[in-house]
Amino acid sequence: MASTLKITLVRSAQASVKKDQRATVAALGLRHTGDVVEKPDNPSVRGMLFKVKHLVKVEEV
Fold it and tell me: How does pLDDT run across 20-32, given as a tens digit for each residue?
């Protein structure tokens, strides 16, 4: 069974963040600070999380 990652946006992805990082946050489905999504634990999602690791909190579910 594949594990799941619980991803929480803890820092705003507004003007002070690079455009590609804002796009990555949006692609993860996060819009507002405090938003939480669950994504499958796979290399694609891990790569996205690495790019925005300073903006999100990740927990394994």
Answer: 999 999 999 999 9
How high is the mean pLDDT in each 10-residue block of the chain (61 residues)? 89 92 97 97 97 97 90
Distance CA 39, CA 42 (A): 9
Q: Is 4-60 in CATH node 3.30.1390.20?
A: yes
β-pair type (36-40, 4-9): antiparallel
Q: For the residues of 1-61, what is the DSSP string, one character each?
A: ---EEEEEE-S--STTS-HHHHHHHHHTT--STT-EEEEE-SHHHHHHHHHTTTTEEEEE-
Tokens (6 digits) for 20? 């590609």
